[in-house]
């Protein structure tokens, strides 16, 4: 049982140390490229009476993109906070090796972080799928929010 627990802990540490930060940075880079592409192709017309559906789609897409960017940044921050907390506990274990509560606490926060990372993976998947779906379904409205009246662009 102890060997299995060490193996799981080792796998979790590898995920936290290598895989997740790399994937979150890839997501951040991907979102920045999408953001640049969207803002580069967006011809946002003035709000007028009627025919504003395409404009609202553009605004919703950019808002969703910003939300996902913010959440990805908070996930990276969470991983950093985990390492800081864990390092402080390991330091206390070194200083007070006879206090078993510190050792238990490290195990507890490792398990908590593992569960948290499973949730983050699910959230990232959902966010990728939502953005992908939103952009694909609305690409024409994103590119050209109005079929006519292009003189009103600014």
Structure, explained:
The chain has 154 residues and is an all-alpha fold. The protein has one domain: Proteasome activator pa28, C-terminal domain (Four Helix Bundle (Hemerythrin (Met), subunit A), Up-down Bundle), CATH 1.20.120. The chain contains four helices and no strands. The longest helix is centred in the middle third of the chain and has 43 residues. This is Proteasome activator PA28 C-terminal domain-containing protein. Keywords: Proteasome.
Low-confidence stretches: none
CATH topology value? Four Helix Bundle (Hemerythrin (Met), subunit A)
Structural class: mainly alpha
Approximately what portion of the residues adopt beta-strand conformation?
under 5%
* Number of helical stretches of at least 4 residues: 4
Q: State the end-to-end distance.
A: 66 Å
Helix content: over 70%
Provide the number of structural domains: 1
Shape: elongated
What name goes with the CATH superfamily?
Proteasome activator pa28, C-terminal domain
The average pLDDT value, as a whole number, equals: 77
CATH C-level? Mainly Alpha
Beta strand count: 0
**What is the H/E order?**
HHHH
CATH hierarchy: architecture:
Up-down Bundle
Specify the oligomeric state: single chain
How large, in whole angstroms, is the Cα Rg?
A: 23 Å
**Main beta sheet: strand number and arrangement?**
none
